[in-house]
Amino acid sequence: MPELPDVEYVRKRLSRWIGHGRIDSCKVHDARIVRPLRPSAAERALTGRGVRAIDRRGKWLRISLEGGGFVFSHLGMTGWFELARDDAPLRFERVRLTIARGRKLARVAYVDARRFGHMRVADEEVAAWSSLGPDPLDDEIDLDAVLARLAKWKKRTIKDALMDQRLLAGVGNIHATEALWKAHIDPRTRAGKIDRKDLVAIMKGVRWTIDRALLDLEKGDAGAKDPFVIYGHAGKPCPRCRTTLVKTQLAGRTTTYCPGCQK
DNA sequence: ATTATTGTTGGTAG
DNA sequence: TCTACCAACAATAA
After folding, report:
1. Contact, A66 vs A46, CB < 8 A?
2. Three-class DSSP category at A246
3. A36 pLDDT more than 90
4. High-pLDDT (> 70) share of chain A, %
């Protein structure tokens, strides 16, 4: 379930498993994932390469290789990295990396049921990475720059704008929904109508929902219970004002909000 | 059987 | 060139 917190969690795990290791072998089970490279070309490009760093920006991961070059990885809707216990492929495994660190081997599997995720092996930074907006977890946000962008969108809703990766990197449907609830702002508000005070509240909301999600993931009991306050809770009472939460469609995505306290 | 799902991209129409 | 909308990608769960 990757939005920013999930990808950050994956980054931490990957760093632990393969940081400063060497890619001993690479096996691509599904050609779609490494397009436009052919599986054999991707495997050849990665085998034997040292790993220098693993970073995240928004929902993208970047593995920097010794001697130059990168693997950019986007998890799509259902992508995930798992540590495998042996050589048998996991369910929906698409790529396997065997990492050598000293005498130890780590079997790192990329698993992705729907296959919307992909990896790109590249010598240079790719546009998908460099055109991302500021990352709300890592970067200082220039409020004036964000406001200037929002002002140009007369018709677009603030909810849709928040999911635009050029505005802020990493916010998706769930966390846009949760952040706007926290900020008391109606998701249907036109982006251009958002003022500085609103934006400050939204940014607080974004950090609030990201921090909560990250904490849940690191506790390790994710999936055990529904961690969201209003996402997916249409028809139930608002936890803040008890008004019944409603859902609507915004830019093609289901959006939940409280008609009582989100203005 | 039907509908929904956390994301992105490419086509089309304006 | 910019904006807005929608279908497509694919596999599951309710």
Report:
1. no
2. strand
3. no
4. 98
Over residues A177-194, the mean pLDDT reads 95
- How many Å apart are CA A197 and CA A218, to the nearest integer? 32
What is the enclosing helix (H) or strand (E) of A156? none
Convert the pLDDT of each residue in A86-111 to its tens digit: 999 999 999 999 999 989 999 999 99
Report phi then psi at A11, rounded to 5: -60, -45
- Let me know if A227 is a catalytic residue: no
> Residue A231 corresponds to which tokens in the numbers above?
């996402």
Q: Are A172 and A163 in contact (CB under 8 A)?
A: yes
The nucleotide whose C1' lies nearest the CA of A251 is C5
**CB A60 within 7 Å, strand C:** no
Asked if A171 and A206 count as a contact pair (C-beta separation under 8 A), the reply is: yes
Q: Which pLDDT score, from 0 to 100, does residue A221 have?
A: 63
Among this protein's residues, is A59 annotated catalytic?
yes
Among candidate residues A49, A59, A62, A120, the one labeled active-site is A59
Q: What is the pLDDT of residues A24-35, one digit of tens each?
A: 999 999 999 998
Euclidean distance between CA atoms A57 and A134, whole angstroms: 8
Strand A22-28 to strand A93-101: parallel, antiparallel, or no bridges (unpaired)?
antiparallel
Omega of the bond prior to A237 within 30 degrees of 0, cis?
A: no
Backbone angles phi and psi of A42, in degrees to 5 = -65, -45
The C-alpha atoms of residue A65 and residue A19 are separated, in whole angstroms, by: 11
* pLDDT-derived band at A223, boundaries 50, 70, 90: low
Footprint of strand B on the protein (CB under 7 A): A 1-3, 6, 58-59, 74, 76-78, 116, 128, 163, 165, 172-174, 252-254
Residue with the larger pLDDT of the pair A56 and A224: A56
